[in-house]
Amino acid sequence: MVKKSELSDKQLEEYLRELPKIRDHRDPRDIYQNITVKMKKRKQKAWIIPSIASAAALLLFVVLASNVLNFNQSAQDLVNENATTESAENAALKQAPDGNEEMGILSEDEPDNKERFNAEEENRELMTIDLEGSYTALYESDIAGKSVFTYTIPDQNAQNIVPVSVTVPYNDELPLFEQYKETMSKLREEEWNLSEYLPLNASLSYVEESNSLHVDLPIDHYYGDGSASEMAFMSTLLSSAAMFNIESILLSTDGSPGAEFGNMGKLTEIEVEEKGNRAYYFFYPSGEDNLPYLVPSRNPYENINEAMDAMKTDIETDMLKASIPSNFNIEDMVTANKELLVIRLGESSELSNDQSMIHTIEAILLTAKDFDYEKVKIENANLDQIGKFIFNEEWAVPVAPNKKFLSE
Amino acid sequence: MDSVFENLYSKYHHDVFQFLFYMVKNREQAEDLVQEVYIRVLKSYQRFEGKSSEKTWLFSIARNVAIDHFRKQKGWKQRLIEKFDWNTQQVKDKNPIPEDVTLQKEEVSLIYHCLDLCTVDQKMVIIMRYMQELSIAETAQSLGWTESKVKTTQHRALKVLRKEMEDRMGKEGIDGEKVRVER
Hints:
The complex is a heterodimer. In chain A, helix 2 packs antiparallel against helix 3. Chain A contains 7 helices and 17 strands. In chain A, the strands form 6 sheets. In chain A, strands 3, 4, 5, 6 and 9 form a 5-stranded mixed sheet that branches. Chain A has a 4-stranded mixed sheet with strand order 12-13-14-17, with helices on one face. Chain A has a two-stranded antiparallel ribbon with strand order 1-2. Chain A has helices at residues 9-18, 28-87, 92-132, 176-184, 227-243, 304-310, 355-370, and strands at residues 146-154, 161-169, 203-207, 212-217, 248-253, 256-257, 259-261, 265-267, 269-271, 280-283, 293-296, 330-337, 340-345, 375-379, 385-386, 389-390, 394-396. In chain A, strand 4, helix 5 (227-243) and strand 5 (248-253) form a beta-alpha-beta unit. Among the domains of chain A are: 47-132; 200-271, no CATH class. Chain A is of the alpha+beta class. The relative contact order of chain A is 0.09. Chain A starts with 8 loop residues before the first helix and ends in a 12-residue tail after the last strand. Chain B is mainly alpha-helical. Chain B has one domain (3-173): Orthogonal Bundle (Arc Repressor Mutant, subunit A), CATH 1.10.10. Helices cover 74% and strands 0% of the residues of chain B. In chain B, helix 2 crosses helix 3, helix 5 (106-114) packs across helix 8 (147-172) and helix 7 (136-143) crosses helix 8 (147-172). The longest helix of chain B is centred in the last third of the chain and has 26 residues, at 147-172. At the A-B interface, helix 1 and helix 2 of A face helix 1, helix 2, helix 5, helix 6 and helix 8 of B.
């Protein structure tokens, strides 16, 4: 009998390496031929389905329309029937059941109609419920009795740095900064389609006297490997500093001052600069069917007009999508008072009444917030309201972008 | 021919083909799937910006194609039934070894069959790591995982293989002597 665990990993690996190499014997030209044929076929298919769908829609319309016409018809018939009943007394017996029959149809139709109304109302309710889940940001009403922490986390390609906000129950026993640090380990970055990044591989401490953040890195830290990881690291520290109004960030490595970075060299301190005046874009790490992240642009803009203009075009290099659709036509923008931005839409604007418009509004609100506005009003829209946003009224900017929930 | 296609074909075609072949163990299917990989590649090549290496990018597409293939292939019911069957049955290979693939050593042939007992994730890691000789980092990039996930999956996969190999060697009496000699 063979004894257990006689196979070492090494042996297994060896066997695996001995598996035969498989080659594709086909001529590359044949393969290319096959591919192009398939790609063409798919393009054809692309229009077949929509045309079937529109044919079906047309059919549905015809059926529904004829129903409505029939209903009118039968009501008309009833009136005629009644008239004859009255005029021809001797035919009364014969006519009456007929009339009843018609009545029967009519009363059958009635509940049908009611049902239709109910269905419509339900639909409307569904719409509002649907929109309920479409807000990405945290608003004042979401945070009663809670503390809000915003973390910046790189996406899975380390291309964009995504601000993500979570709430934790209010707790006055532990310093806020400690709670902020503790929460880092509860973030579920991978589930959120971001990269596993926090907690940092460094010890963070807040020194109250000097209002500074001390960051002690291990010797073998990898935050200096490449510009992307440097950027992500700096952003995380800067956003932490911004959240706690910290004035300076001091770096050390294993207790001794300074930390080495590939591109920036040795740094002992990071200058706390206030970021702002950025434009918010949509970012879909998990496909456009899901909620977007609202991500600020890498660079600031001169003024809000420029920012809003820029938001109409994708930033392809960063996989960021335009957050303002082309039919959202801004006629002019006025700073009514220091805090209020009034946006007046042009006549040609056509806002769609759906989830994506909510995200557009959120992008505008967050951008306005980045330009230090506190409220936004949009006038002259073709809709009265979308979700909780009522046009021509002042909306408070969100508390923080991209809300996420922590697991317990 | 398209230059993108030519370039990728010359550099990686056989690697990708081999990966897909061992995933599905069927030459015709692998041929179809590798074509699907190219279709997706050609459609999205302009979106590739050299953030990751071309190779890992291509493998990440191949991985998606393989996963989609498995999803399409079976309904969940069948999958469930099969799962129960596996435990009781001997490894029964639905896809016999293609004629042109010769497995001389019995252990190698056994490991070829035992690969099917790994989960799809484990199989992908094993193929990438040991047959394509991708590094942990490259594998992680191709699969969109963290490196630690690659390591644990690799570890678990080897564990599954070892257990199944040993069970079968014992039962089928594939000569224990040989194994002992190699100890």
